[in-house]
Structure formats: structure tokens, C-alpha cells
Amino acid sequence: MTTPLHRLDPAGGCPHAANARMLAEGPVAAVVLPGGVEGAAVLGHDTLREFLAHPDVAKDARHFTALAEGRVPEGWPLAAFAAVRGMTTADGADHRRLRSLVSRAFTARRVEELRPRVRELTDSLLDGLERAAEGEEHVVDLRRHFALPLPMGVIGELFGVGADHRDLLHDLSSQVVATDITPERSIAANRELIETLTAFAAAKAADPGDDLTSALLAAHDEDGDRLSHAELIGTLVLMVIAGHETTLNLIVNAVRALCAHRDQLDLVRAGGADWGDVMEETLRWDAPVSYFPFRYPVRDLTVGGTLIPAGTPVLAGYSAAGRDRAAHGRDADRFDVGRPRRPDAVRTLSLGHGAHYCLGAPLARIEVTTALSGLFARFPDLDLAVPEDRLTRSASFVGNGVRALPVRLRG
Q1: Which CATH class is domain 5-408?
Q2: Mean pLDDT of successive 10-residue segments in the chain (411 residues)?
Q3: Does the global pTM surpass 0.90?
Q4: DSSP assignment of 82-151
Q5: Can you give the residue ranges of every domain in the chain?
């Protein structure tokens, strides 16, 4: 690659200023990942859409040249994104087999049947917000008491994970996606997450129930197509992390956006847009994932006018693509829930595109729209309790969120 190298900050931070600088140079950027590993990020919307569905782009880490040559340091914080076995690291027939097996358990009917339970959990958590609010100003951390326990509770019930394990799984998954973690802690967190899920799967095998883990185990035990042990655990890792971290960030980012743009909240209340529009615009304007690892060209590939050598680890720059003016217009930096759809009907790529489009997207839509509608119906004057620039960002350039969201429930 001949473009200037951009060193991604392992501590994360707000991605939009850096995205704008890189996009000004072109839709593809050469980047330096933690440990000095060189890679690329595809940032432009149309270029990313093409790249995500390109037949010469793979997900299997056997195509990762630096990894194959031993140039990736031990304890690399992004190792899980390459090493985990499952849908996110499989290609072709292998990917179709794994996705088919998971889809049998993750059916549209089963997801839709969760809608009443999502509403029930939302109402219960809203009651909890009232109780957790401190002092006369009614201030509470919305992330901790609402945005986190809702998707974690849903994914926990879906997979049969008891409430006593959910905090541990969230803590471990947060460390697995962190990019500023030490090598020693990265190794320990990955090991503990695998051990925890292995023990959980063994308990489910001994005492199955009406949950997705039991269904995956049944698929694993059938003759013919089957999940190996590594694929089973890798699938659980994927579902636990993606099943709550992304939705958590999406709820938090939507609340932040609406608090900063009261006219857009008023538009929804007046019926000029709906909560689905809020979710779609948040996905575009402040994507819950900034840079998702990894894809690898299987041959030297020219993308957006830039040559990416075969075997390069490539990040999908979702947050950059969402504000790409070439795709979304001169006002791409503006949060607008009434924004008209592009002619190709693709407003955002933040849930993926092509064969690896997010399997959990329908569940995320139920959770986010239910959460937002319930939250602002119960607390119509809800607002941030601290200025936006005082919020502490997540310690990762993968996830795009904040560590806490103090809000004032009433004016």
C-alpha cells in the first residue's frame, strides 16, 4: 500500500475526527495495529460495501500473512478476532454450514417470541432506574442500569445463561474486545472466557433446556453436519460478545444523540419518524462498532483505488462509512432521523453486508426500539447529567461507546 500509515490509538476515543482525516485522503487507509502489525481500514461507504461482498476477500485467518509468519506478538489484543472458530472466521461452504446450524436454533419465530419478554425486561429495568437514581436531581448511570442489563438479560435467557454468570461474561467479553489491554491480561481474559463457556456448555449437555445453547449442542451431536467443540465454543463467544456489546453501544449512542438533538426527539414524538428510524440513523451517524476485524484479500486487490496486498488484515470502518459525504451527502455529519434513504436503500453498513450480515439484527431491532420507546415514554425530560465531552470513552477502537452514561431522569 502506498497511502500514509495511520496508527490507530489502542485507547480508543471518539473516532469521527480521525475518520474524517483519513477519509480526506481516500476511502482506504493503511493503519498500524497494536504490536506494530500493519493492516488496512476500508472507510468509504461504497468502497466498503464492495469490499464486504468481494469474492476474493476471506475471513479465515489462514490467509493472515503476518500471523502465518509468526510476526504477531503473543497476547495480541486482537487475537480473538482471528483465532476464534465460528461463523465470523469461516468462508464459503464452511461458513454456510455453520450459519445454517446456528440459524436452525436462532429462528425468526424464536426471536419474535422474545418481543413480549424484551418489553417486560425493559419495564422492569425502567422501574430499577427510578430506584437507582440519586438525590433530588434523579441522576443515574443509564449504561449500567439499563443499556447493559437489557441485551445481556435477553442474550442470557436466549442461551440459558443464569443471572449469576452474566456479569462475569460481560466483564470478560469487554476485555476481549479491548485494544489497550496488556498481553498478559489479554491471554488471561481469553483463557477464562473459553474455560467459562466450556464449563457452561458441559453443564447444558448434561441438563439441556429450551434454549439456544441446548439447540446448538443438539446440532453438534447430530450425524452429518455438526459443530466441532471449537466451533461450538467459538459460536458461543461470538453470540455472547456480539449479542450484547453491540446493542449496548447502540442504545447508549442513540440516547446520547437524542439528548443532543432534542428537535429529532420531538420529530419522533410528533410522528414524523419512528424508533426504527432512530436506530437506523444512529447506526449510520454513530455506529456501535468503529473498526471491525478482520478480512483478508486472498490476492493483491485494488480497492477504492488503493492496492491492498494479499494477506493484509483489513478492518471494516463502519463509523467512517456512516459519515462518508460521498455517500450520504454534504450533511453526513448531521443527525437526522428523517434522512431519506439512498436509492439503493442502504443507509448503513454497520450490521455488515453480504454473506456475513449480522444474524442477530432482527433481535437487536426489537431490543433497541423497545428500549428507546419505553425509556422516553417513562422519562420524557431525560437528559445527560454531564457535558458530552466529559464522558469517558470505551478503551477500544473496535467498539464505539462510553464507559458510563450519567443521565438526569427528570428536568
Answers
A1: mainly alpha
A2: 81 94 96 95 96 96 96 93 89 88 77 91 95 84 96 89 87 89 92 92 91 81 69 86 90 98 96 96 97 97 96 98 94 93 72 88 94 97 94 94 94 66
A3: yes
A4: HH--SGGG--HHHHHHHHHHHHHHS-HHHHHHTHHHHHHHHHHHHHHHHHH-BTTTTEEEHIIIIITHHH
A5: 5-408
